[in-house]
Amino acid sequence: xxxxxxxxxxxxxxxxxxxxxxxxxxxxxxxxxxxxxxxxxxxxxxxxxxxxxxxxxxxxxxxxxxxxxxxxxxxxxxxxxxxxxxxxxxxxxxxxxxxxxxxxxxxxxxxxxxxxxxxxxxxxxxxxxxxxxxxxxxxxxxxxxxxxxxxxxxxxxxxxxxxxxxxxxxxxx
Length: 173
Known about the structure:
7 helices, alpha+beta, globular, four-stranded antiparallel sheet
């Protein structure tokens, strides 16, 4: 009887250890991606969801070393400490409500990143509310979503629903 109890307990512990080692993965596909792989996937998804002209006029920033990073990243509250990976395309001129971003927050920084993204959306709404009515409508319709793998998506542009779905499809594809 003691032997059977010991074997059962050992089997249960082994099973628990194996389940614990299985991991949950960072993405829906089950395989963990490196930060560089996330960055490349984000950039590709954003560029694929836009036309060539917009890709030239509003380039995708993927590093704090990019020329425009010092001006653009603080608008979203993105820092090296709170983002593991990102791809961001934000209009730097205050005449267009445009922002598309995919951000993988660093461990424990999801709320901080989400607050920064939402603050950016609110600032854009305030900027255009009395200034350009058509741009205010775009800012007001902005979409912010957190995907299953923790990626925070921001889509603030014309036809934002189509762009959001194109990016999500690309990232999940």
